[in-house]
Amino acid sequence: MFKRLLGFALAFGMAATAPPAFAASCGMRDALVEQLTKKYSETLTVGGLQKVNGAQSVMEIWSSSETGTYTVLLTHANGTSCIIAAGTDFFQAVPKVTVEGTSS
């Protein structure tokens, strides 16, 4: 009986702690952008509209050629932004150019 009770307590306790950890990566867009520019030297690289659960959001990728870091930011209509992904070794893909009259 005690083992089951302990198991349930651990499972529900872990589930209850997950949302605050995720919420730590969210905040007002202006504050997050300030951190990205000052701390990581990142600038807006690309972005677009995304439909999430019937609502429009703005998805942006911020990156830095200096530091090689990148951050994927999702901003909701209320001005709250969440960091969806972040990493290092950012690169931009270069489209392959074919010269007319040659085969690839």
TrEMBL record:
It comes from the Bacteria. Residues 1-23 form the signal peptide. Keywords: Signal. This is Lipoprotein. It comes from Falsiruegeria mediterranea M17.
